[in-house]
Amino acid sequence: MRYSVYRAAFETLALTGVSPLIRRVSRAKGVIFTLHRVLPDAPAAFSPNAILQVTPEFLEAAIVKTRAAGFDIVDLDEAARRIEAPEKTKPFVVFTFDDAYRDNLQYALPILKKHNVPFTLFVSTALTDGKAEVWWLALEDIVAASTVVVIPERSGPRYADAATLAQKQKLYDELYARHRTMPEPRRVEALHALADRAGLDLGAHCRSLIMNWAELATFADDPLCAIGAHTVHHYELSKLPEDTMRFEIDRSRSIIKAQFGKAPAHFSYPIGSPVAAGPREFAAVKELGFRTAVTTRPGGLYHEHAGHLEALPRISLNGRFQKERFLDVFLTGAIFSMLAGGKVNVG
Asked: What are phi and psi of 253, to 5 degrees?
């Protein structure tokens, strides 16, 4: 239902051609795009994480459309400078990729190099070590491969039906919601218990999806790429005690510096929603000296963000909205700011 409403809104905006008109009167200076996976194949019928996946063709179309619409494609350092400038600047777009999926190397990097696109790749260091869990995709893969899922509970195992598409979607939604609300140590414990019963090796699963350090070196050596920090374990920071939260942020930066000789200047909050990161986390990132930090709160970038560079909004290039006619909407930050309440949202 939610996607149907959003799609209807996108279709209306695309059909009326109103997005360029909004940009002309908007004070928005630019937008930051969020991407995760870049894959050529269409998602399977059961793919609850399809929103995180775009095709190489859509990525290339987004780059071409961005420049054709009069935007510069810049890195986060230049974006910060333009946000801080009180005067009107040429509109800009920043491309960012979270988690360092291996498909970014195979499918995204050639396109980014072909079009000379600067970008930021945010790395969770324990994922790159193969010692953490890509838990949202692990849940998907467990449910996808099963007709019945054994869910360990304190009262004993529960057997959840997952034979039909509807049953799979309902079960995934339930498991995802439960994992989001659990304290992180309990979530990790619950995921491992679930994976053990399903026969899924979480370490191998992580290593199959996420680049290792040798593969990441290709990005670190490329002048188009800035490596950003994304915590150690990809924990939801709001659920952690203060000292653990700060350790996750600072340690990821130290590990990346040890690997590549340069400390990241930019940070991405895992999950990045208002529930996952708020004023406490923003203050910690600012105190730790990062130049910028990005959320997943939707919105355009305004001069007012100069005072809140540790809480920048981003617009997701959503895998369920891969139509070239929608790109004018994605480029119009003011639309997403209005959806977020029309304010610089940092609280």
From this structure: -65, -40
Q: Cβ-count burial of 45 within 10 angstroms (0-12 exposed, 13-18 middle, 19+ buried)? A: exposed
Please measure the distance between the N-terminal and C-terminal CA atoms of the chain and give it in whole angstroms: 28
Taking each helix axis from N to C end, the angle separating 242-260 and 279-287, rounded to the nearest 10 degrees, works out to 40
CA distance 322 to 299: 19
Residue % of the chain over a pLDDT of 70: 98
* Residue 160 scores a pLDDT above 70: yes
Average pLDDT, the chain: 96
Query: What digits encode the pLDDT tens for the residues 231-253?
Result: 999 999 999 999 999 999 999 99
Which residue in the block uniquely carries the two structure tokens 């600047």?
89
Q: Which residues pair with 119 in a beta bridge?
A: 95, 225
Q: Residues 56, 119: contact at Cβ < 8 Å?
A: no
DSSP character string of 88-134: ----EEEEEEES-BHHIIIIIHHHHHHTT--EEEEE-HHHHTT-S--
Instruction: Give all domains of the chain, ordered by start, each with its CATH number.
Output: 2-130+214-339 (3.20.20.370), 135-204 (no CATH)
pLDDT at residue 4 in the model: 83
| Averaged pLDDT for residues 71-95 | 97
CA distance 76 to 290: 11
DSSP string, 37-105: EE-SSPPPSS-TTGGGEE-HHHHHHHHHHHHHTTPEE--HHHHHHHHH-SS----EEEEEEES-BHHII
Element (H, E) at 7: helix 2-16
Report the percentage of the chain scoring pLDDT > 90: 94
Alpha helices in 145-268 (DSSP H): 165-181, 184-198, 202-209, 213-220, 242-260
Query: Is this model's pTM higher than 0.85 or not?
Result: yes
